[in-house]
């Protein structure tokens, strides 16, 4: 929020453009308090986005918690569609929708943040003729989102927050000085935007934009398609979940660790059962002691693997 506040403080109420904001929020949070905080630092008219609300210049619209923010023509769409990159709202979803609706008149901005949301979205913006702006990662509180964008997208401007407001005012002014000539919007992005608007897609639509791969969607367990177009390696399922390769790798790592912790619990329970059986005298006691020794070895190896995996993740 601090980076966002610093940016919007530089934008005047006379800005000849609408400002749409995605902030990663907890699903049970309230956006109204954040709107009030933003409004206290800018002369832009700040409000929580509402479905079918008209887009107006000089207004800032914040995506509600647990809802995607989209655009269609001159209106906002607020939906509870599938997560993208494990986020809802997602910057990728907003960028794609705006790029399809307004092509070259879109400026996509990625600020400080964790993981990879916004990277594919900036690629969408660029493919539709728009402009990509990224906060200088050397000054970002969390550099991973800006760094991911810079690795994968031909970003137009990399600037510190203190200079970003002036840059946006200049870019918006240049855009309003020229006539808006409708550019060609790639067909695959039109399909993906339509899937997001309708909340659920269809296998036929996804087949048009990608090819099926032997991977499973972490969100719903369905099949995944590798998207054919664009400069960012991406995957999506026919229900609407979408992932960059990095986000999919992160999800698979999390699922694998959860499965291994379950396996560890089951081994511990088996060891406890064997210990109880071994407490009885006779032939079974010797047999169970041997099996207990063997399963303890498996438990120790699995525990070491899980702890080392967590330590490596913390270092990343």
TrEMBL record:
Gene Ontology biological process terms, A to Z: chemotaxis
Regions that span the bilayer: none
Reactions catalysed, as given in the entry: [protein]-L-glutamate 5-O-methyl ester + H2O = L-glutamyl-[protein] + methanol + H(+)
Keyword Hydrolase: yes
Keyword Metal-binding: no
Residue ranges annotated for the CheB-type methylesterase domain, each copy included: 1-175
Cited Pfam families: CheB_methylest (PF01339)
Gene Ontology CC: cytoplasm
InterPro entries tied to this protein: CheB_C, Chemotax_prot-Glu_Me-esterase, Sig_transdc_resp-reg_Me-estase
Gene3D superfamilies, per database record: Methylesterase CheB, C-terminal domain
GO molecular function: phosphorelay response regulator activity; protein-glutamate methylesterase activity
The protein's Enzyme Commission number: 3.1.1.61
Keywords (A to Z) from UniProt: Hydrolase
Enzyme class: hydrolase
Name of this chain's protein: protein-glutamate methylesterase
Organism of derivation: Hymenobacter aerilatus
